[in-house]
């Protein structure tokens, strides 16, 4: 893992970043976390589980800056609009 110079090196020596820790990229964060925008910074947030509200991917250039970005759905799940809002669902019933 590469280090973020604003975070003490000791954090990288003993653990990967946890929920709420500042990050540069998802690979900085512990398993089942991603690096997502929170206001004007980026922090580690939990990857979404089945049934949680998700944000559908939009075409490039067709959306504004999200102040509270969500992580993607976890492995094997996809973000679907079965009803509003979109939620993470398994492809198999």
Automatic annotation (TrEMBL):
On whether Disulfide bond is a keyword of this UniProt record, the answer is: yes
Matching entries from Pfam families are given as: DIKK1-2-4_C-subdom1, DIKK1-2-4_C-subdom2
Q: Does the record carry Signal as a key word?
A: yes
The alphabetical list of record keywords is: Developmental protein, Disulfide bond, Secreted, Signal, Wnt signaling pathway
Main location, first listed in the record? secreted
Cellular compartments per GO CC: extracellular space
Similarity comment: family membership:
Belongs to the dickkopf family.
**PANTHER family with a match to the protein in the record:** DICKKOPF-RELATED PROTEIN 2, DICKKOPF3-LIKE 3
Name of the protein: Uncharacterized protein
